[in-house]
Amino acid sequence: MAHFNITFKPDGTQISIHAGATILEAASRAGIILNTVCGGRGVCGKCKVKLADDTEILACQHKINADLTVTIPQTSRFYEQKILTAGIETKQKAELDIYKKYSNLTAGPVLGLAIDIGTTTVVAKLIDLKTGSQLATEADSNPQSIHGDDVISRINYAKSRQKPAELNKLITDCINNLINKLCEKTAARTEQIYEAAVVGNTTMNHLFLHLPVESLGKAPYKAYKLDAQDLPAAKFSLKINPEANIHTVANIAGFVGADTTAAALAADIENQDEITMLIDIGTNGEIVLGNKNKLLAASCAAGPAFEGARIEKGSRAAAGAIEAVVFAGDDIDIDIDVIDGGTSHSICGSGLLDAAAVMLDLGIIDSTGRFTKAENLPAAIEKRITEIKGQPAFILADTDQTQVYITQSDIRQLQLAKAAIRAGAKILQKNLGIDDSAIEQIFLAGAFGNFLRKESALRIGLLPQIGVERIKFIGNAAANGAELILLRNQLREKAKSLAKKIEYIELANDKDFQAIFTNSMNF
Ligand code: FES
User: Fold this and answer.
1) Ligand 1 atom closest to Cα of 44?
2) Ligand 1: residue whose CA is nearest its atom 1
3) pTM of this prediction?
4) Residue 79 confidence (pLDDT)
5) Does domain 98-262 have CATH number 3.40.50.2300?
6) Distance 513 CA to ligand 1 centre (A)
7) Share above pLDDT 90 across residues of the chain, in percent, rounded to a whole number
8) Where in the chain is the domain with CATH 3.30.420.480?
9) Is the pLDDT of residue 12 over 90?
10) d(Cα 437, Cα 440) in Å, to the nearest integer?
């Protein structure tokens, strides 16, 4: 199958994608989230983009069969519009007012930072507080990862004396690095930064604030502090104006943090009439379910399989990783998309999901996840089934330098991760008294959430079984929520009340949890 290069303007991003993919898919691979009010059915007209000859087309309908340059207007972007208007589908408007408190300190630029401290990745955005415009974004790996890739290992590490300080210093240094890069990129000065809004899961929030984390590591997993805080920058070692204020957003519970509060705010879930499920899949998966009447939340220990960890040939979504695997009914072989094109050397989470979906469709694995003796396979597919280190495996790419494959134990890891998310969703649904058919929309947030293929996520049973058009990507909702909160007092208050309104459900306390989890392992 042919592959084509798609260049997005004015972003300047370029990706390579297989023939037949839509521009909407390509944009999401490039990290650009479009408005898809109708879920890609071609009826709302919100996803309009321009081709090089100025023709306007619907990104969700245009199938790629050539190299293209695509210009994405501001009005078709999901978050840029949301941030400027405080919500596309929300009636509430809030003025930019945080900058006003610094008017007596400077007549010059008043800049702010929106910071999302993820367990794996830290994102910082430099924002002009007077105009709301985003000046630059930088991201880096969370350096605390050297002490474990999930929050429990960080908590365990922090338990001994001195160690919380070490973890705190690691994250502070990381943010300072990002601040330097942001300032270099924009020729801004660090003393022009007067405000920061910080989100993260409860453990990241506590480690940043230098709060005790012991209670987060043992039942009933209580946070030391859930509330939002405003602290002088002088209390931190952040290299910004010493007069600056650091606002940390309210957490919901020990395992559902300020990042979920921010994501729920950005998704405007508390104003939805429709029953909505917001899923942010990171190292942990957080789910919020409900609508304007009632909101429930849970945290699912998916583990890092979706980020490529614990998968033999797995990796993060970086250059050289297989990000998509496709097999159209009349094809004679599978096709793969590799991040940045070129030779593949690993597979990332979205590729893993696709591969499992294709293997299920072809009968290479059965609904229990076991490799089976598939029949009537095209010869090219048959050749890909082999045995590696005593395990059945399916080869995705085979070159002189490297072989990328999926083994039986990779499939098991994927099953554990997807069962954790699906079981969490089912228990929230049970608490709300609804089945899949009552869920009117699913918002997928987070880095992984925005790159997966919805069809594959449905095929493997990661998501409740609803129509694909009702599943919407909403980008890095936590970081975008932080941006909203950074700019406006009213949204700070709203975030505080939202964190209190969302009712936390402890999955482990559900007597049926084990049965539901085991049941969710099947594809
Ligand atoms: S028309 Fe493309 S998403 Fe609605």
Assistant:
1) 4
2) 42
3) 0.85
4) 56
5) no
6) 38
7) 66
8) 98-262
9) no
10) 8
How far away, in angstroms, is 463 Cα from ligand 1 center? 22
**Shortest-distance atom of ligand 1 to CA 60:** 2
In 343-401, beta strands by DSSP E: 346-347, 385-388, 391-398
Tell me the C-alpha distance between 50 and 71, whole Å.
5
Domain 263-303+423-478+506-520 top-level CATH class:
alpha beta
Query: DSSP for 87-138?
Result: -SS--------GGGGGTTT-SS--EEEEEEE-SSEEEEEEEETTT--EEEEE
Ligand 1 pocket: which of 28, 38, 75, 78 to mutate (most atoms within 8 A of CB):
38
Ligand 1: lining residues by beta carbon, under 6 Å: 36-38, 40, 42-47, 58, 60
Locate 244 and state its tokens.
């600056």
Ligand 1 centre from 25 Cα, in Å? 12
* CATH number belonging to domain 3-76: 3.10.20.30
- Ligand 1 site-directed mutation target among 28, 32, 43, 70, most atoms within 8 Å of CB: 43
State residue 382's pLDDT score. Answer: 92
CA dist., res. 440 & res. 234, Å (int): 46
Instruction: Quote the pLDDT of residue 93.
Output: 56
Residues 60-74 pLDDT 10s = 999 999 999 999 987
Q: Which pair of structure tokens corresponds to residue 226?
A: 């859930």
Q: How far is the CA of 60 from the centre of ligand 1 (A)?
A: 6
- Model confidence at 91, pLDDT cuts 50, 70, 90, reads very low
Residue span(s) of the chain under CATH 3.30.420.40 come to: 263-303+423-478+506-520
**Is the pLDDT at 300 greater than 80, yes or no?**
yes
CB 125 within 8 A of CB 92: no
- Ligand 1 nearest atom to the CA of residue 35, by list position: 3
